[in-house]
Structure formats: structure tokens, C-alpha cells
Specification:
The structure holds three protein chains of three kinds. Chain B has ten helices and ten strands. Chain B is an alpha/beta fold. In chain B, the strands form two sheets. A six-stranded mixed β-sheet of chain B has the order 6-7-8-3-9-10, sandwiched between helices. In chain B, α3 runs parallel beside α6 and α5 packs across α6. Helix content of chain C is 36%, strand content 26%. Chain C starts with 5 loop residues before the first strand and ends with a helix. The chains are: A mainly alpha, B alpha/beta, C alpha/beta.
Chain lengths: 662, 254, 239
């Protein structure tokens, strides 16, 4: 009984914050069916702005800037208003131009905006935590209940603020003219226009209110945990989205219910399960997956909200204009699938190993081929089959951990076998690691089959987080955050391929095999079935394609490649830790394919090459030296622009033929 | 003549509203059977129910004595019912030939391993289906357009592509949902000839169409749906002289 | 003759590569009922959607009360006095009947005569008064149609565009709706009606425009349209 009361208070607190942020997701989803991933970052910005306003001075871009040192009760509403305005600007610039685009486009734009905002925040406030300043309200002595429960005055404030805002919003939506217009737009945008409702203004209003709620949640969260940090919005953002889905996305009471439910389950799991604090997030995501699998409309949601059509991002070929025309011709020529050209490209790639003598740059090339292969695997799922997968890196992790545990912890650690004696096992593991990942891919794919578009993305994201949490916390198996060291480098007949040159050549050989394998599958009835699902799932099914089976096949094939690359990665780096498999890696790989060209063979490698070379080149720039995170901001910005002006990516012309060559 | 498709009491309900009310439909093997009725009568719902895209709340359907109600769409297609869509649903990011070959999906047998090795059987299978696809495209009048992107085709040609793709299934029954919509008179006549040629190849056709001029001469039999129920059934002559049908269409008091 | 309230000239609308409507011209005199009839796929709904601003025309002009509507947003057209009862009714199903009607008056915030109009509409369709607290999605098809008409009237339109208001309704309900259309005109609203129910539409209308395959094939007062022409249009020539 001793901790129960305190857990109850903690759960209420967390639930209030989740509920507020969940309202942001639910409101915008309800009106335009977009999962605005950037709310996590607006949450974070709310916290930073409020803290900055409360300080006498704060370091911005490394310069000490004077600040008004406002009291909390003034800084809070001001921060909320500023972030609300920012939310409207984001909608206007990044999402409104995509209003009629395929659904994948705004979703990817939202992910890109989120990366952009996070990087910019880090540039402004720096990578360190900003402590939440002391303020009068926070210093009041706590109220003690039953001798064991301590309630701070601020906790009461959080709860009251949350309840008041929820009630206010409910009344607004229920009884005001604008609120009615919002509900009408959510139900039927065309009919709404016909009664004279300015739909664009209503959508802007949804973003305004949603961003205000996200900011309020962010401030209250930062206050509760006494800090602000550029990545602080990521996990609470995911949780809030989970809460919104749990309660039934689109429903405001659902958001409140979902937020409270999630917070209670997490808090009590953390309090009562053995080592619960480490597993609390996994419990939350497991609930998300169960809900999506069995009741995707959530507790209070309505079914039809989730029956959004899948969308092809690649769809129509657009005639290239201006700057893109020569780029287009070049990549079109490069990716045309001409055998002589392909051999020539492979020869150039091999020759690079001998031309470049600098080990540093050869290591960079190892990264390029690793990322290129990984992106090629994800491209099967996203590019060819049209399923947005945010959990792909989990397969990469499975392959890497499989081989590392086997070599280091089992064979050497337990049986004392020298890796040099079993050098061939690495090659077998490429296949076995791939097969294991493929199996897992098919398993976790099964509950996602009924879901489409954004729901699928959320579910795969949940799976990814669970695998990452397992890798971090199952210390006996994975050595946790310390990672696994001493993974042997690949070798050939006892000759270690230690130098970057040989690793690059090995990676290149694997890349050629991977692309070759993918090409043979894609240029057959299997590839045609995948692309048919992407283009029009109903028509594919009506043409006799068992779409569920082919989606699983797509996951498994992509997973196989992910696992294989994981094995190569572990042995080429000789060290792995959960940090290599973060969600951010997954988002990065996705952005690389989108940039290079979804559904092409060359696009993933092109994206990887551009990005990794850019990372290196940018290191020489003074601005980047001061703010390395701006490279990610640049990537985010490029992605938003690509979504608006060229959703097919750079190599759009390199469309892949789906016919077996004669 | 034997019955190919038979539905008994087929009912579709959306939240209390009946889109189809206990429809008993029989389509004879080898016929061109028309399904007509005013807007909102339930014709497209019927086709969607027959292909498993809309769940039925009661009733049964069978194709040549094989029960198919409640089966998933791809299995119904595999059993021999192919279709086209009222709003054209070609695969936009694919060429005309690739589109057509998706219709041949059920004829492919090659395993993953065979595809990766590019075995002889896999190559032969691809080659023979490609030849069939080219023949189907030729048949619907799209010869020489196989390398073009599907989206680049004119509207009328997109309709034909959908038919070629459906024919690749080698169906027993072909469902055509308003295949003539939006075409001029000459195009309609050409397409009607193609539909007759399909029938002559032994494929039964169930067609929804609003152009009664064409339907009179094209169809062997007509069924009329009105308010989700079967109103009349018979030869075009019988159906058009039926006063019930006239009033359903023109709105005169029955 | 008075100047027309609505004048459409040479209207063309395309969906991608399809010409849905080509060279459609029609005019609606103030206080009249004009019907646009023709078989399915003739381009009636497309024409209506171009007039209400949901579709952008590829060519031609639409003038309302002497003002060119090119580039005017659908919302603004409602403010100008052009309301549409859309095909398939499209009431807001999870909002109450009263809320649906209030939304019809969205562009009249603070207008003191809104309650008065609400009352006028419930006089026209008394059932809506009984059902005012009910969710629109739970109404029968005919009641939803009345609500859709009521909602459009709440914007106080000068021209009411009605797209197949009798579609899928039982015969008695068709009768009632058609009778109310006459009543709405009597109260001073001009009506452009799209109907499949040709015989009734002709009986009701001052002028009838017949579309076929996206083109106007006939325009005349309703009385001049014989049964033969009609049967031709809908059922085709006899063999």
C-alpha cells in the first residue's frame, strides 16, 4: 500500500500531460487525417520558450541574450501563444501545399519537419539540458495526505490546467461557430465548403489549437521533470500519439481517456513489475500494438476514420522542369538497367577501392554501401509495396545482435572458440541473420495487414521501440547500453579483411548481390504484385493477387536484407550498441530513399552517397563545425521541399521495369 | 443453357439501409447479361458484392456450383470472376504491359528460388504470359502501346486496358462496370464489338451500362434493379416493354 | 424578359483526359425553376459542381447576378447567394439536426433573422422540428433530404442548386419533396434542379435543358417535350 498512493498521483500527473498532447494529434487527425509527427517538437519548443522567458538571460546560438525573466504564470501563456503561431506557419508552408498529394507525402513531410525543428532547436539552445528555473509557485510546501502521499502545489496546478483546457476545448468544439465548423469539416469537407465554411481557415485553426495544447503539455512536462532538452519531445510525442490512438483518434474524450490509461499502465508497471522502470515504455508500446491489432479504431473511435486509402508516392511521372531537367536526364540514363552500363558502374565502384588510398574516405565508403544496402531493403517495403515502415531498423538490429551474440557471447565467451577458426560462420550468418530477421518481419507484419498508411507507420514504430528497449534492457542477452565489443572482422580463408579497402570491397560485393537479388524479384510477377498493391490495392486483389500474403512477403524480403546488412555492419564495425539502431536511424534511411527515389534500384545508393558525402564535406564548414546538427536540419528542409516540388525523388526517371529481361 | 452464376437472397446492408434486398440473379453460361437500373439502384453494389469487396449480410452466390460468398476478393478472382471498375483503376506507375500482366498473376508458379536463379521454367513462364498479354492487348486494340505508361493512355484506351488486364485471368465470368461511360458513339460501338468477341471466346459477360441503345442490341438478357431489389428479368424486348421498368426510369406513377 | 440570375456559356469541364462536359450553356431567370435532365453520365452533376465552385471549368463562363464567377471560391459563392443541395444529401451525420441547420447559416453570424428562418424551415419540413436533437445520420433518407434542403436554405440563397433531391426515395416521399420545391420557389428562391426523374422534373419546371454525353441537346419549356423524346433519351430507340 505504501507506494500505491504516490504512484496514483504520478500517474494522474503524467496522464494529464499525455492527454493534453494527445489532443493535438487527435484534433489535427480528426480534421485532415494527418499524423503530424512534428507535435513532439512543438511540445519541446513550448518548454524551451517558456524556460527562456523565465530566465534573466539565456544562451541562444552560443550568445548570451537578455531575457525578460517573466513569472511562470506569464511565461506559460506567452510560450503557448508563440508555439501555436508556429504550428500555423508549419501547416501553411509544409502541409497545405500537399493537401491533394498522396497520403504518404504529408506524412513524410511531417517526419521531415520534426527532424528540422529538433535540429534547429538544438542549434538555438545547444545540446545541453536547460534547467527549469525556480519560481514561487513551485516552492510552496507539498501537501501531505495519509502521511505517505506528497502532492506538490504545482502538481495540482498541472491537473487543474489540464482539466480546464480539456473542458474549455470540449465546450469550444461543441458550442461555438468555429467549433461546429471544425466538426463539420472533419465529417465532410466538401459539404462544409458548400455551406460556406472556409476549410483552409478551419484547418489552420486545428493546427493553432493543437500546437497550443502540445506547447502547454511541453511546459508542464518540463516543469515536472525540471529541464528542457532538444530531444525531450520525442518519447512523450510518441506516447501522446499512442494515447490518441488508444482512445480513438479523432475523439477528444478519447484523447483524455487514452492519456490517462496509458499513464496508469506505465506508472503502475514501473512501480510493481520487477525492474519495471526499464520496461515501462515497452509496456506502453505493447498496448499500442494490441489495440491496433484488435481494435484499430481505439476505445472511443469510429471505425471509418481508419479506412483511409493507401497512396502511391511514385505514381505519375511529372515532366522535369528547370534545374531538374539535366539531373533527370542523367539519372534516367544511369538507372535505365542497361547491362553494359551496370557493369561499368560496378567497375567504377570497384576501382574506387584502388584509387582512393585514404583509409578515412574508404571507411566513409563502407558506410555508403552499408546505408545503401539497408535503404534498398526498406525500399522494397516503402518504395515498391508502398507501405510506410518506421520500424525497419529493428531488422538491422536483429541481424547485428544475432551474429554478435553468437560470436562473442556464446562461441567465444562460453565455449572459448577462436573466431579465426570459424571464419566461414560469418558468411553463413549473413544468410541466417537475414532469415531470422525475415521470420520476425513476417511475424510482426501479420497484425499490421489490416492497417493502412499512417496506422501502419505507427504500428511499425511501436515494434521498433520495443526491440530497441529489449536491446537496451535485456542486459544478459545484449549487454545493454554498453554494447558488444570485440566482434571479429570478416575474414576469407583465415585472412582477416581488416583494412577499410577490403571491407569496402566486401560491402560492395554484398551490395551487388543484394541489388541483383532485389532486381530479379522485382522484375517478375512478384515485383508486379508489389507495385500493384502500392498503386491500387483493391484492383490488385480483384486481379487475383493475395495482397496480404504479398505484403508479408515484402516485409520478409526487406527484413532479410536488413538482417543481412546487420551482420555485415556488426563485423565491419566490431562494436554494436542500441544507439546504432535508434528510430532516428530509421527516419534517416527513409529520408535517404525518398531523396534518391522511391521504387528505383539506384535511388537508395544515390541517397546514401549524397548524404554521407555531404556529412563529410559539411564538416569543413565553420557553421557546421559550430552547429553540426544543422546538417540534419538541411536534410529535413530538403525533404519538405522535395515532397512539395518533386515527391518522386532525384532519380525519378530511373523507373524500374517490372519485366523479366529476355 | 446451364447457369454459370447464381445468387440467392443476396443482401447488402449499410447501417440499416439496404443497398441490395434479397437479390436472386441467374446468369447463363455464355451469355452477355445486362444489369440496368436508375442511379442508386444498387448495380455497383451488386458487382462489389459479387467480387467480395462489399460484405454481404445474407444470401449466397455460386459460380458453376462452387460457393463463393464470404470468400476474399483474390480467391473469387482466382475462381474465375474477373472485373473492371466504374472509376478506372489501372496501376498508374506501371506500363501497359505490366498492368496487363498483373491480371495473369494466378498463372505464375515460379518459386522465389527459381526467380533468383532465373530458372528456365521461370523464364518460359514469363515469356508465355508476356505473349498472352501482347495478344490480349492486340485483342482490345492496344497493339504497340505495351511500353507506354498506363497514365499516358487516353480515357477510352484506359478502359480497354482494364478489360485486357481482366482477360488475363482467363475468367469464366467477366463483370464490366459501366465500360462505355464517357465514350462517343463510335468508341461505344467498337467496344461493344469487343464485348461480343469476348463472349464468343466462351467468357460469360455481366455488364452494367446506362446506354440503353447499346444494351438493347448487345445483351442476351437483362436484369433490372430498382431500390436494391430485382424489378424485372428477361430479354431486352420484354424488359423495355415492361411498364414497371418504364416507370422506374421515367418516374411516372406505376 | 428579365436578365437571367444565372447564365452559363460554353462551359467545359475535364477530369484528366476525359471531357465530362463540353460547351454547355443555360440560363436561369429569376423566380423560375429550371431543370437539367438527362441519363446517367450525361454531365448534370458535373455542370452543377462547376457552378457551385467545387470543380474548376476548363472553358466557358459562369455569371451569377451579372458577376463573373471565374476564380471565386465555393465558400464565397455561398455568401453571394448560391447554395447547393449536394447529390447524396451529405448531411453531417454525427451532428444534430439543429446543428446541421445552424451550419447552413454559417456565413450569417449574429444575423437576428436566423431564428426566424429556422422557424420557416421547420414550417416547410415539420419533421425536422421533431427531430432537432437527433443525430442527422439516424434520420431516414427522405428526412435527410429535407435536412439537406433546409441546411442550404439557411444561407438565404437567391439561387438553389439541387442535385437529384429524389434519388433513392420512396414514391410518397418523392411527391412531398417535389411539392416543397414548388413551395420554396413560391417563397422567392430561384431553383436549378438536376433530376433523373424526368417526367416529374418537366412537370415542375419553367424551362428544361437536356444533356446527353456532356452536351446540351435540347432546351425548351417543359410543355414542349414529348414522351417520344424522353423515352429516346432514357431507354434508347426501339429496334
Amino acid at each position: 500500500m505504501d507506494i500505491f498512493g504516490q504512484l496514483l498521483v504520478n500517474a494522474l500527473m503524467l496522464g494529464a500531460i499525455y492527454a493534453l498532447a494527445a489532443v493535438a494529434y487527435t484534433l489535427v487527425y480528426g480534421v485532415i487525417q494527418l499524423v503530424n509527427f512534428a507535435f513532439g517538437e512543438l511540445f519541446m519548443l513550448g518548454a524551451f520558450i517558456c524556460v527562456s522567458l523565465m530566465l534573466p538571460s539565456v544562451a541562444l546560438f552560443g550568445w548570451q541574450a537578455p531575457m525578460p525573466a517573466l513569472p511562470f504564470l506569464v511565461a506559460l501563456p506567452l510560450a503557448v501563444v508563440i508555439v501555436a503561431g508556429l504550428g500555423v506557419v508549419v501547416e501553411r508552408l509544409a502541409y497545405r501545399p500537399l493537401r491533394n498529394a498522396p497520403r504518404l507525402a504529408p506524412l513524410i513531410a511531417a517526419i521531415a519537419v520534426s527532424v528540422l525543428l529538433q535540429s534547429v532547436a538544438q542549434s538555438i539552445w545547444g545540446p545541453e539540458e536547460l534547467r527549469f528555473p525556480r519560481f514561487a509557485l513551485g516552492q510552496l510546501p507539498p501537501i501531505v495526505l495519509f502521511d505517505t502521499i506528497y502532492i506538490r502545489v504545482m502538481e495540482i496546478f498541472v491537473l487543474v490546467a489540464a482539466i480546464a483546457s480539456m473542458i474549455g476545448l470540449t465546450l469550444f468544439v461543441q458550442y461555438t461557430r468555429m467549433g461546429r465548423a471544425m466538426r463539420a469539416t472533419a465529417e465532410d469537407p466538401t459539404a462544409a465548403r458548400l455551406v460556406g465554411i472556409p476549410v483552409n481557415r478551419v484547418i489552420a485553426m486545428a493546427f493553432l489549437i493543437g500546437s497550443a495544447f502540445a506547447a502547454l503539455a511541453g511546459v508542464l512536462y518540463a516543469q515536472t521533470y525540471s529541464f528542457a532538452h532538444p530531444t525531450m519531445g520525442f518519447l512523450p510525442g510518441l506516447k501522446a500519439l499512442t494515447a490518441a490512438v488508444l482512445g480513438g483518434i479523432g475523439s477528444i474524450p478519447g484523447a483524455a481517456l487514452g492519456g490517462m490509461l496509458l499513464a496508469f499502465v506505465e506508472t503502475f508497471a514501473a512501480g510493481y513489475l520487477p525492474n519495471g522502470a526499464a520496461w515501462r515504455d515497452a509496456v506502453g508500446f505493447a498496448i499500442l500494438i494490441l489495440v491496433l491489432a484488435f481494435r484499430p479504431q481505439g476505445i472511443l473511435g469510429r471505425k471509418e476514420l481508419n479506412e483511409a486509402p493507401a497512396g502511391s508516392l511514385v505514381g505519375e511521372q511529372v515532366a522535369p522542369r528547370g534545374l531538374f531537367a539535366p539531373v533527370d536526364r542523367f539519372f534516367g540514363w544511369l538507372g535505365q538497367g542497361n547491362t553494359v552500363l551496370n557493369i561499368a558502374l560496378a567497375c567504377i565502384a570497384v576501382a574506387l577501392a584502388f584509387i582512393i588510398t585514404n583509409d578515412y574516405w574508404l571507411r566513409i565508403l563502407v558506410f555508403v554501401v552499408t546505408y545503401g544496402m539497408l535503404a534498398s531493403g526498406l525500399n522494397i517495403v516503402v518504395g515498391f509495396t508502398g507501405l510506410l515502415d518506421l520500424g525497419f531498423v529493428a531488422f538491422f538490429a536483429v541481424g547485428a545482435y544475432f551474429t554478435s551474440i553468437l560470436f562473442v557471447l556464446v562461441l567465444r565467451g562460453r565455449f572459448g572458440i577462436d573466431p579465426a577458426d570459424i571464419w566461414w560462420l560469418f558468411y553463413a550468418n549473413l544468410f541466417l541473420g537475414g532469415a531470422l530477421a525475415a521470420l520476425i518481419g513476417a511475424l510482426i507484419g501479420t497484425p499490421t495487414l489490416r492497417l493502412r498508411g499512417d496506422y501502419l507507420a505507427i504500428m511499425t514504430l511501436g515494434f521498433h521501440e520495443i526491440i530497441r528497449i529489449v536491446a537496451t534492457n535485456w542486459i544478459d542477452l545484449t549487454r545493454g547500453p554498453m554494447g558488444i565489443r570485440g566482434i571479429p572482422t570478416p575474414s576469407l580463408f583465415g585472412m582477416p579483411l581488416m583494412s577499410p579497402k577490403y571491407l569496402y570491397l566486401l560491402g560492395l560485393a554484398l551490395s551487388i548481390l543484394v541489388v541483383f537479388g532485389i532486381a530479379r524479384l522485382v522484375r517478375s510477377y512478384v515485383g508486379r504484385a508489389w507495385v500493384a498493391i502500392r498503386e491500387n490495392e483493391v484492383a490488385a486483389e480483384a486481379m487475383g493477387v493475395p495482397t496480404a500474403r504479398y505484403k508479408l512477403l515484402s516485409y520478409a524480403t526487406g527484413g532479410f536484407i536488413g538482417g543481412l546488412v546487420g551482420v555485415f555492419f556488426a563485423h565491419s564495425q566490431q562494436y554494436i550498441s542500441p544507439l546504432s539502431f535508434s528510430l532516428f536511424e530509421n527516419i534517416l534511411i527513409l529520408m535517404l530513399i525518398v531523396m534518391g527515389g522511391l521504387g528505383t534500384f539506384i535511388g537508395p545508393f544515390l541517397g546514401a552517397l549524397f548524404w554521407i558525402v555531404f556529412l563529410q564535406v559539411a564538416q569543413g564548414m565553420p557553421l557546421i563545425q559550430a552547429h553540426p546538427e544543422l546538417r540534419y536540419a538541411a536534410l529535413g528542409l530538403v525533404l519538405v521541399l522535395l515532397m512539395i516540388y518533386r515527391p518522386q525523388g532525384l532519380a525519378a526517371r530511373a523507373r524500374v521495369s517490372l519485366m523479366m529481361s529476355k | 443453357m446451364s447457369v454459370l452464376l447464381e445468387t440467392r437472397g443476396l443482401t447488402v446492408e449499410f447501417g440499416g439501409l439496404f443497398a441490395l434486398k434479397a437479390v436472386d440473379l441467374q446468369v447463363a453460361d455464355g451469355a452477355i447479361h445486362g444489369l440496368i437500373g436508375p442511379n442508386g439502384a444498387g448495380k455497383s453494389t451488386m458487382v462489389n458484392a459479387l467480387t467480395g469487396l462489399v460484405p454481404t449480410s445474407a444470401g449466397s452466390m455460386q459460380l458453376a456450383d462452387r460457393p463463393l460468398h464470404g470468400r476474399p476478393t483474390w480467391e473469387i478472382a482466382d475462381a474465375g470472376i474477373a472485373r473492371t471498375f466504374q472509376n478506372i483503376r489501372n496501376f498508374a506507375g506501371m506500363t501497359v504491359l505490366e498492368n496487363t500482366l498483373v491480371g495473369a498473376h494466378r498463372h505464375f508458379r515460379a518459386s522465389f528460388a527459381a526467380l533468383l536463379r532465373r530458372s528456365r521454367a521461370a523464364r518460359e513462364e514469363e515469356e508465355s504470359q508476356r505473349a498472352r498479354a501482347l495478344e490480349a492487348l492486340h485483342f482490345v486494340g492496344l497493339r504497340g502501346r505495351d511500353e507506354q505508361m498506363a497514365t499516358g493512355l487516353s480515357y477510352g484506351h484506359q478502359r480497354r486496358l482494364e478489360i485486357a488486364r481482366a482477360l488475363m485471368l482467363q475468367p469464366r465470368l467477366l463483370l464490366l462496370d459501366e465500360p462505355l461511360a464517357g465514350m462517343n458513339a463510335a468508341e461505344k460501338d467498337e467496344l461493344a464489338d469487343i464485348i461480343r468477341a469476348i463472349r464468343d471466346r466462351g467468357i460469360t459477360v455481366l455488364i452494367i451500362e446506362h446506354d440503353m441503345q447499346i444494351m438493347r442490341t448487345l445483351c442476351d438478357r437483362l436484369s433490372v434493379l430498382h431500390h436494391g431489389a430485382l424489378l424485372a428479368d428477361g430479354t431486352p424486348k420484354e424488359v423495355f416493354s415492361n411498364p414497371l421498368v418504364q416507370s422506374a426510369y421515367l418516374g411516372q406513377a406505376a | 424578359m428579365s436578365t437571367p440570375l444565372l447564365e452559363v456559356g460554353g462551359l467545359a469541364v475535364r477530369y484528366g483526359v476525359i471531357n465530362a462536359v463540353e460547351d454547355v450553356s443555360l440560363s436561369v431567370a429569376p423566380g423560375s425553376i429550371v431543370s437539367l435532365i438527362g441519363s446517367n453520365g450525361a454531365g448534370k452533376t458535373t455542370s452543377l459542381r462547376a457552378i457551385s465552385g467545387l470543380l474548376a471549368p476548363a472553358a466557358g463562363s459562369i455569371r451569377f447576378d451579372g458577376r463573373d464567377l471565374a476564380g471565386v471560391a465555393a465558400e464565397t459563392r455561398v455568401a453571394m447567394g448560391l447554395a447547393q443541395v449536394p447529390e447524396g444529401r451529405r448531411v453531417f451525420p454525427r451532428m444534430t439536426v439543429l446543428e446541421n441547420l445552424q451550419l447552413g447559416a454559417y456565413l450569417r453570424p449574429g444575423d437576428a433573422s436566423v431564428p426566424e428562418d429556422l422557424e420557416a424551415i421547420t414550417t416547410l419540413f415539420p419533421i425536422l422540428e421533431q427531430r432537432r436533437k437527433q443525430l442527422a445520420g439516424t434520420l431516414s433518407g427522405g428526412e435527410q433530404q429535407m435536412l439537406a434542403i433546409g441546411r442550404a436554405l439557411m444561407s438565404r440563397p437567391r439561387l438553389l442548386l439541387m442535385d437529384e433531391p429524389t434519388m433513392g426515395l420512396a414514391p410518397q416521399m418523392v411527391e412531398l419533396i417535389l411539392e416543397r420545391i414548388l413551395e420554396i420557389r413560391r417563397l422567392g428562391t430561384t431553383i436549378l434542379l438536376v433530376e433523373q426523374n424526368a417526367v416529374e422534373a418537366i412537370r415542375l419546371s419553367d424551362m428544361v435543358t437536356v444533356l446527353r454525353l456532356g452536351r446540351v441537346v435540347h432546351t425548351s419549356p417543359g410543355s414542349e417535350i414529348g414522351d417520344d423524346l424522353l423515352r429516346d433519351l432514357y431507354l434508347g430507340h426501339d429496334v
